[in-house]
């Protein structure tokens, strides 16, 4: 099973705790080997990759752009680097600038590699092109199943 992850960043501590529980439960339900696919941004992307690796699963990274790492929060760089080093494969879009087009291109690569996409999504429209809602819509149009993980009553 190849599972991609997409989700909202910048969640508060309470929502983060609940999302981590939902991600863990989703991984615990899987039988057989699991390969995760993630752009390893701060938040659900990285949490999912960490959990999967801790369970002995394989993990592939998708790098949306050459400048992607620099566009992420500086305090996330050490974790990003550790996860990237542990990736069994790294996929690139070939884009340079880390902008919304590159982020969507990275998500399209991710969806193309996945049998299932987990979406940490509040169900609202994307705040900008390439947001979680856009990724969910793309996966659905491509026929890739999406499982939404969002805590009851949570907001961002």
Count of DSSP-assigned helices: 6
The secondary-structure class comes to alpha/beta
The low-confidence parts are: none
Cα separation of the termini:
30 Å
| Overall geometric form | globular
Give the C-alpha Rg: 14 Å
Give a topology summary.
Elements: E1 2-7, H1 13-28, E2 35-38, H2 44-54, E3 58-63, H3 68-71, H4 77-86, E4 89-92, H5 100-113, E5 116-120, H6 132-142, E6 146-148
Parallel strand pairs: 1-2, 1-5, 2-3, 3-4, 5-6
Overview of the structural elements:
By secondary structure, this protein is α/β, with parallel strands linked by helices. The protein is built from six helices and six strands, in the order βαβαβααβαβαβ. It has a six-stranded parallel sheet with strand order 4-3-2-1-5-6, with helices on both faces. α6 links the parallel β5 and β6.
Question: What's the short version?
Answer:
The chain is an alpha/beta fold.
Give the tags:
single chain; 156 residues; alpha/beta; six-stranded parallel sheet; 6 helices
């Amino acid at each position: 099973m190849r599972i991609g992850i997409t989700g909202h960043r910048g969640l508060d501590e309470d929502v983060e705790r609940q999302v981590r529980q939902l991600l863990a439960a989703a991984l615990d339900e899987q039988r057989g080997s699991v390969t995760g696919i993630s752009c390893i941004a701060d938040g659900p992307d990285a949490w999912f990759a960490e959990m999967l690796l801790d369970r002995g699963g394989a993990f592939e990274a998708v790098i949306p752009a050459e400048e992607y790492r620099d566009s992420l929060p500086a305090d996330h760089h050490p974790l990003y680097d550790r996860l990237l080093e542990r990736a069994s494969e790294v996929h690139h879009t070939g884009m340079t600038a880390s902008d919304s087009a590159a982020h969507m291109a990275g998500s399209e690569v991710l969806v193309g590699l996945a049998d299932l996409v987990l979406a940490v999504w509040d169900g609202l429209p994307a705040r900008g092109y390439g947001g979680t809602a856009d990724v969910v819509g793309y996966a659905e149009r491509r026929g890739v199943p999406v499982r939404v993980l969002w805590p009851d009553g949570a907001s961002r």
